[in-house]
């Protein structure tokens, strides 16, 4: 092994910092619905998710190979390029965390890498076919597939549970929800932790430390798994609030259907080497589960903001990555300026987050903070009455867990 240069050490540390932000940014993917339905206490949920993320990091390296060998041309990459890419990804993760939007850490990383690579080596250094087939197409397909699967699973679940004892059925679904949440955490480790492994491996190849086309070394796998697990345990409570309460109000049956559907999509994609966004998959599944319950609705105002963030992730991270790469091109002092900018910006974002603290004690207090949008109000108002004419009673009797905020839009519209 050749000498480990200072810039390479900086890149590895920055990559692990990104992995840490990925952990707390994406905790909501696995545990938001479990926490919002009360199936698990918040701190216990994130602890379980952290352990399973670490385990999942050791199950496969296919996604890591997509990042390190497939997306960009290794020959045109310098360690400074990887550093610039990580700056763009980290800042986008922190900004979206600040406003509580579940955007894709995966796309932030790939956007930063693409922007920095283009700034350094030109458009030809990006493999467009890999970008389309293993990044962009899965980005569109994953939430649709997971959403449709969750909607159908939710309807099937309620259909099969009509004659079941209410309390016993709910207890069973809560247990199933815990198991499916664990599966999502495991899937998240197999997919998202590998992205950092791929970036570090790409930096090692660029720095001449490992041979081209190498798989991630064991120390890279271990360090990436530990970093994402620590971030997960910290808990991205702002995004957990949006995912668990801001999009829709979930019952245990819906939470179980959403998490099982999302985990299936993520695990299948990891096996195929698709650099999938777990955020897109879980968000799509949550919305599908919301629509799958009779009388359930999605708060489209929140969903629209989330869709906008999804669309901006790749280009925004790419732009920051390209600018950072331009500055690092001035030499060591340029790299130092970019590093200082990253540290100061991160500190400012953290300071802003302290103005309204969201943690495990108030993560479920979101009904006032996330009011129903116009579309949701209209959908609730025109929900067809059940057979027999019991218009007022059925929503309450059939869905005892339905919240007051969920029923309020219909009442307001009628008045």
Describe the fold and architecture.
With 415 residues, this protein is mainly α. It has two domains: 6-364, no CATH class; 371-415, no CATH class. It has helices at residues 6-36, 42-56, 62-70, 79-98, 105-121, 128-160, 166-206, 218-234, 237-246, 252-272, 278-292, 300-328, 332-353, 374-381, 394-398, 404-414. The relative contact order is 0.18. The model is unreliable at 366-415 (pLDDT under 50). Pfam families: PHO4 (PF01384). The chain crosses the membrane at residues 44-61, 81-101, 107-128, 135-153, 218-240, 307-327, 333-350.
Quick recap:
The chain is built from 16 helices and no strands. With 415 residues, it is mainly α. It is found in: Membrane.
């Amino acid at each position: 092994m050749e000498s480990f240069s200072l810039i390479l050490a900086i890149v590895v540390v920055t990559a692990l910092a990104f992995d840490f932000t990925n952990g707390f940014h994406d905790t909501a993917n696995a545990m938001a619905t479990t926490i919002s339905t009360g199936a698990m206490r918040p701190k216990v949920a994130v602890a379980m998710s952290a352990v399973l993320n670490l385990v999942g990091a050791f199950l496969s390296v296919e996604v890591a190979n997509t990042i390190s060998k497939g997306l960009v041309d290794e020959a045109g990459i310098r360690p400074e390029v990887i550093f610039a890419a990580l700056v763009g990804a980290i800042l986008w993760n922190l900004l979206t965390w600040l406003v509580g939007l579940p955007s894709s850490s995966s796309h932030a990383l790939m956007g930063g890498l693409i922007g920095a690579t283009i700034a350094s080596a030109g458009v030809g250094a990006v493999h467009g076919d890999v970008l389309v087939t293993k990044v962009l197409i899965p980005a569109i397909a994953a939430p649709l597939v997971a959403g449709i699967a969750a909607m159908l699973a939710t309807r099937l679940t309620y259909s099969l549970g009509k004659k079941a004892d209410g309390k016993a059925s709910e207890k069973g679904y809560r247990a199933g929800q815990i198991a499916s949440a664990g599966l999502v955490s495991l899937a998240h480790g197999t997919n998202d932790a590998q992205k950092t492994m791929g970036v570090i491996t790409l930096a090692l190849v660029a720095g001449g430390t490992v041979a081209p086309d190498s798989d991630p070394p064991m120390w890279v796998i271990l360090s990436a798994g530990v970093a994402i697990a620590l971030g997960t345990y910290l808990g991205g409570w702002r995004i957990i609030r949006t995912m668990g309460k801001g999009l829709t109000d979930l019952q245990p049956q819906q939470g179980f259907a959403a998490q099982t559907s999302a985990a299936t999509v993520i695990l299948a994609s990891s096996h195929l080497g698709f650099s999938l966004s777990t955020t897109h998959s879980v968000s799509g599944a949550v919305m599908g589960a919301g629509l799958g319950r009779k009388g359930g609705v999605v708060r489209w105002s929140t969903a629209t903001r989330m869709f906008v963030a999804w669309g901006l992730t790749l280009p925004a991270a790419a732009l920051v990555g390209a600018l950072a790469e331009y500055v690092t091109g001035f030499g060591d002092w340029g790299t130092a300026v970019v590093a200082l900018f990253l540290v100061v910006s991160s500190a400012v974002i953290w300071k802003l987050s302290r103005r309204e603290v969201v943690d495990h004690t108030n993560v479920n207090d979101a009904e006032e903070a996330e009011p129903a949008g116009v579309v949701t109000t209209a959908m609730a108002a025109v929900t067809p009455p059940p057979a027999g004419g019991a218009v007022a009673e059925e929503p309450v009797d059939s869905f005892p867990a339905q919240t007051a905020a969920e029923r309020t839009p219909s009442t307001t519209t009628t008045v």
